[in-house]
Amino acid sequence: MSSRHTLTVLLLFIVFQIAGFSQQTDKPNIVFFFVDDMGWQDTSVPFYKEVTKLNREYYTPNMEILASEGMKFTQAYAAAVCSPSRVSLITGMNPARHRVTNWTLRKGKSPDPEHPIVTSPNWNLNGLSANPNEELAVYHITLPELLKKEGYKTIHVGKAHFGADQTSGEDPLNLGFDVNIAGHAAGAPGSYYSEKHFSSTWRKGDKIWDVPGLEKYYDQNIFLTEALTLEANQEIENAVKEGKPFYLYMSHYAVHAPWEKDPRYYQKFIDQGLDKFQAAYASMLEGMDKSLGDIMTQLKKLGIDDKTIVVFMSDNGSPSQTPPNLPLRGHKIDPYEGGIRVPMIVKWPGVVAEKSETNDYVIIEDIFPTFLEMAGAKKPEKKSEDGKSFVSILEGKKTNSERPLFWHFPNTYDVPPYSIIRKGDWKLIYQHVDQTFELYKIPNDISETQNLISQNQKKAKELAKKLGRYLKKTQAQMPSINATGESVPYPDEVEIK
């Protein structure tokens, strides 16, 4: 290496160090690393009390590093399907309240099929809107809008899936982001391959799935996950040069279908003995993990890792096509733990103890007030937020272990509609079709194999009453009964037998 080249590299390093130092010192940067359809056990980081089969089969070394530098949440929850989770995190509202209760895509069209017994309600199938008058959509001030008011540069990279095609909510730039890379209405990519132009035309699919704005990577032999990471790291560098704190919403399309092998890692899993599908899935997980490592390396390179919060989370459980996330029961869209319990890790230098772990539960709408508190911002003066900040958990303080959590899925897509309450150790599921209940004591039965409804009717009635009150308070929609046209009764209106 020539002396001139060495001097150039040194000067660039000094410039970035100065730029990092010049960022607003009272505002931490926030990186929200959000993965799609990744199950609780789809990682080499154990979130259960013991190492599981999947933990041994998958390889996510950068998640391991992040866990060693921060706090692991063993009971983090999301909605059971993507759009509800994404609208909840950006608004702080529970799906029962914002009514985006299933995945969105086409304006005015629901993915819910007909059901022989019930019909889905007229839910907000157009998703989140930037316009208060948009039909079948919810309008609410967003997290990036509020962070912008605090001086943050707000960066969106990857999957958006906030609003339907041809609505205001399909473009993250309308929802408070300064930058949008590759985000649009669709919740999955046409393809992960640049040689297929990230398009679905290779499988004769609709171009609505095509990932926008990445033309420069076409035919460059690059996987989508890697392309998004390169873009994200460039935007981090841009924000540092501008001297602004930033919020990076790094929202990967991975590991959502189509399941296409990442050629960088696929063969090792075949050699390990996994079948072709699981090897492809494992390779996508490792590619996602590499992205996490590359972003953490960029933070160090720019001298800002000590004042950047990194939060890792998934939007729901893994789909039924993937290996079951044992010991959890069920999968994506299900009311069981396999559908709603997700991996989550938080690194906050100087605040969160390294190699720490919490069994306190949190839910995805908690992201909204937590990030605002981290940024020193106030929650908006509205009573529509359901999320609760978990900064106190990150600081190692005691929290309310009896706080109720709620899920609401009044739709007929893939599984029958349901509502759930989790309070303390107890979880009650209300099945809308036949108005029956399931009661589980989660710490004793994480696999939800023993319905304790007959042995604990008093507890079931207590939880049904709380769940019913909440659904009524939020004016949650219920499906209608085909035979009568009447709404399915709320859980507190049904006799528990």
From TrEMBL:
Q: Which GO terms describe its molecular function?
A: arylsulfatase activity; metal ion binding
Q: Which family does it belong to?
A: Belongs to the sulfatase family.
Database matches in Gene3D superfamilies: 3.30.1120.10, Alkaline Phosphatase, subunit A (3.40.720.10)
UniProt keyword annotations, A-Z: Calcium, Hydrolase, Metal-binding, Signal
Q: Which domain of life is it from?
A: Bacteria
What are the required cofactors?
Answer: Ca(2+)
One Pfam family recorded for the sequence: Sulfatase
What region holds the Sulfatase N-terminal domain? 28-377
**Name of the featured protein:** Arylsulfatase A
